[in-house]
Amino acid sequence: MNIFYYSKFPNQPKWLNILKKKFKGHKIFTVNDNFDYKKIDVAIVWNLSNAILKKLLNIKVIFSLGAGVDHILKLSSYDKTPIIRIKDPIMRERMFNHVLSQILNYQLNLILYQRAQEKKLWLDERETPLNNDLTIGILGLGYIGEFVAKKLKKLNYKVIGYKNSVSKSKTSFQILTGKKISQFLFLSDVIVSMLPSTNETADFINKKFLKKMKKNSLLINIGRGESLNEEDLLSHIKSNNNFYVSLDVFKKEPLQKNHKFWNHPNISITPHIAAITDIESSINYMHKRFLEFRKQKKFISDVNFKKGY
Ligand code: OXD
User: Fold this and answer.
1) How do residues 72-131 score in pLDDT, each as one tens digit?
2) Among 279, 301, 305, CA closest to 62
3) Spatial distance between the Cα atoms of 143 and 160, rounded to a whole number of angstroms
4) Would the CB of 277 count as within 6 Å of ligand 1?
5) Which of 28, 79, 136, 202 has the smallest number of Cβ neighbours within 10 A?
6) What Cα–Cα distance (Å) separates residue 213 from each residue in 136, 187, 202, 207, 268?
7) For the whole prediction, is pTM greater than 0.70?
8) Cα 213 from Cα 219, distance rounded (Å)
9) What ligand 1 atom has the least distance to the C-alpha of 275?
10) 67 lines ligand 1 (CB under 6 A)
C-alpha cells in the first residue's frame, strides 16, 4: 500500500520514523517526495489543504492525527471517504489530567495566589470546597468525555453529563438530555465542554448559555473554539467578576497576539495542548485498524455523517 503522511507538527521526523517501522513493507510519502498522488491508498493527516486532498483521488481511508475530524470534514473536496480518528487511552488520560488541573486551580484559588505572588502579597487563608461539594458538568460524552466523567466521579466529585439525544449507555453518573440543558447548567459548578465542531455546536456556548450558569463558576473549553461565542463570553465576565474560564481551543489558532483573552485576569489560556497525541501509541492504534481493514477488506468510518463528527 502507498501511504501519504501530512502534518506541520515539528515532530514530523519522529512520526515518520515510527510509521516506517510499524508499516514495514509499505511505501510512505510526504509532500517533499516525488510521487503520484493518484496511487496513494491511505492518507494520515492533520490540517491537510483542500488542494492536496483533491489530488488524492484513490484513497481508501483517511486517518486523522488527532481525536477531532473537523479538519477533514470542512474540506470542500471531502467525499465521505472513511475516516479513522485516534482513540488512544494515553490521550484521554492526558485530557483527564488537564481537566483535573484546571478544576483544582479553580477549587483551591490557585489563580489568586499566583497573582498575589506577583505583587508579593501574603493573602489571608480562604476556605475551599471539597470534591464532594462541587458538581462537574460534562458536555460531550464521547470516548474521552465519558472517561473524564468516570475518573472525576471516582475522585468524589459530583458528576453530571449532558447529551442532546437520549443516552443508551449505562453510566455511573446522571446524564441529562434534550431540554434539560437549563437544569444541567443550573446545577454545575464547573462545565467541561468537549463538544466537537459541527453545524449544531457552532456558538452553542453563547449569551443564553452563559446566563444560565452559576455566577461564580468555571467554564473549561477543551472541545473546539467554534462552539464558544467569544464576544458573549467577554461581556458575560464583565458583569460576573467571579466567573472563570480555562480555554485550550479557539476559533482561530494560534490565538492572535492582539486577542482580548490574553490579558484577561479571569481567563487561563493553554495552546491546544490538553491532550496531545502520543506518537507511538497512536501509530499502534492506526496499525491495528489497518490490519482489521486488510482482514475485512473495508474500512468502517468512525464518523457519523448525520451528526457531523
Ligand atoms: C484534537 C486533538 O482533535 O488534539 O483537537 O486531538
Assistant:
1) 999 999 999 999 999 999 999 999 999 999 999 999 999 999 999 999 999 999 999 999
2) 301
3) 16
4) yes
5) 79
6) 12, 8, 18, 10, 18
7) yes
8) 9
9) 4
10) yes
